Amino acid sequence: MSHATPHRLLYFFVAFVLLMFFGLIYAWSLFVDPLEAEFGWDRSATSVVFTLSIITFCAGMLVAGALEERTSPRTVMLITATCLGLGLIASAFTESLPFIYATYGVLVGAGVGLGTDVVMSVTLKWFPDKQGLASGAMLMGFGGGTMLLSPVVTTMLGALGWRLTFGALGVIFVVLVGAGAFIMKLPTPEYVRPLLEKARQNATVAAVDMTGGQMVRTPTFWVFMVYLMLVTCGGLALISQAVPAAMELLMGAGAAASGAASAGAGASGAAAAGAGVSAALPEAEALMLATAAMGSVSAMNGLGRLINGFIWDKFGYRVCLTWIAVAFAAGMLCCAFAMMGSNFPLLVAGFMLLGLMYGGNMCSMSAMVGTFFGPKYYGINYAIATCQMIPAAIVGPQILALSQMGSGSYLGAFWVFFGVAIAALIVSLFIKPPKNNRAA
């Protein structure tokens, strides 16, 4: 069996690289300014592209799960390469909103969903004994792709313009995913059997494999979905508003510190300065600091996936779910107290906890599918579980918007999501493997 180990690591490496590039779906914002400048579109219109891409991403994962069972991973990956190539190259010829909605919003989003699901599914079948760590490490690539590759895309935009950048990315995706289709393959039953038996003896994977239909009929699945939605809605909402929230503190605190100084409150002014907030912070400097704070969320998002994968394999699902909910609550407390005390470093600490917990949550979703319901039908089961992101992406931002609009500050939103974190912690106590599917 040892001779197969290098192949296992090779497939993991290929999957990691592909997922890094798939993670560029979150880099849509890089194209927003050039497109708005050329066509005069407003932000609400261009934001629909990203919304469509997330919806079709989830739909693409469902289709991939069904196709993989009926065809082969190679076929699904070749379809992925076609969708991404056509979508990105066609986007280079954009002249209207409906056109970019169809090309980037639908074709690219669906292609990323197809590719992500099949790559995760194939690779995790090679790691039945390390579902958590393998999931976390691969998802770290997906989460970190935007952070690592965005500077490259930004350079391309500056040198080539947005049309040639879309075209170049289309060619790159066709080559990469096409090559991956001919490299990656499923492990043989002889290779998997001893690893799977060992995992089941250690109770780290389900005793039997459950289909998607069987999975959705278990109470375990629905309780876990509630937990995932609570954490995801908070993560997506607050991550999307990290820069405005940091700007509120930096600009508002700067004004407050300036006013306190003019009123002779020297001690308060000194305290504000000691907290890392300038009494006369220029807007450009505040934006730079706020953007850096957002970067800390992205970095911790990737790291959280790897950390959670290790914890899942080493200490089990219960510890994982608990630390995610606790980190969520602690992050919201840090953010709330940071706003109340005009403490920017404390806000950054809250953002970092937020990134860790959100990344850990995404890893838990993947590890749960393999651990609770078995690796055989991972593709379709993971796709079904991912659908929790759709209601979470709708509800979370709405809660944030209503809270922020009602109070005029993000402080109220932080307290609301602190309550959501406590609810997630309570729900986590009721999660346990399906009664008829616990490893012996």
TrEMBL record:
<feature type="transmembrane region" description="Helical">
    <location>
        <begin position="346"/>
        <end position="373"/>
    </location>
</feature>
<keyword id="KW-0472">Membrane</keyword>
<feature type="transmembrane region" description="Helical">
    <location>
        <begin position="48"/>
        <end position="67"/>
    </location>
</feature>
<dbReference type="InterPro" id="IPR011701">
    <property type="entry name" value="MFS"/>
</dbReference>
<feature type="transmembrane region" description="Helical">
    <location>
        <begin position="319"/>
        <end position="340"/>
    </location>
</feature>
<feature type="transmembrane region" description="Helical">
    <location>
        <begin position="286"/>
        <end position="307"/>
    </location>
</feature>
<dbReference type="GO" id="GO:0022857">
    <property type="term" value="F:transmembrane transporter activity"/>
</dbReference>
<feature type="transmembrane region" description="Helical">
    <location>
        <begin position="76"/>
        <end position="93"/>
    </location>
</feature>
<feature type="transmembrane region" description="Helical">
    <location>
        <begin position="132"/>
        <end position="154"/>
    </location>
</feature>
<feature type="transmembrane region" description="Helical">
    <location>
        <begin position="220"/>
        <end position="243"/>
    </location>
</feature>
<dbReference type="Pfam" id="PF07690">
    <property type="entry name" value="MFS_1"/>
</dbReference>
<keyword id="KW-0812">Transmembrane</keyword>
<feature type="transmembrane region" description="Helical">
    <location>
        <begin position="160"/>
        <end position="183"/>
    </location>
</feature>
<dbReference type="InterPro" id="IPR020846">
    <property type="entry name" value="MFS_dom"/>
</dbReference>
<feature type="transmembrane region" description="Helical">
    <location>
        <begin position="412"/>
        <end position="431"/>
    </location>
</feature>
<dbReference type="InterPro" id="IPR036259">
    <property type="entry name" value="MFS_trans_sf"/>
</dbReference>
<feature type="domain" description="Major facilitator superfamily (MFS) profile">
    <location>
        <begin position="8"/>
        <end position="436"/>
    </location>
</feature>
<protein>
    <submittedName>
        <fullName>MFS transporter</fullName>
    </submittedName>
</protein>
<dbReference type="InterPro" id="IPR050327">
    <property type="entry name" value="Proton-linked_MCT"/>
</dbReference>
<feature type="transmembrane region" description="Helical">
    <location>
        <begin position="99"/>
        <end position="120"/>
    </location>
</feature>
<feature type="transmembrane region" description="Helical">
    <location>
        <begin position="9"/>
        <end position="28"/>
    </location>
</feature>
<feature type="transmembrane region" description="Helical">
    <location>
        <begin position="380"/>
        <end position="400"/>
    </location>
</feature>
<keyword id="KW-1133">Transmembrane helix</keyword>
<dbReference type="GO" id="GO:0005886">
    <property type="term" value="C:plasma membrane"/>
</dbReference>
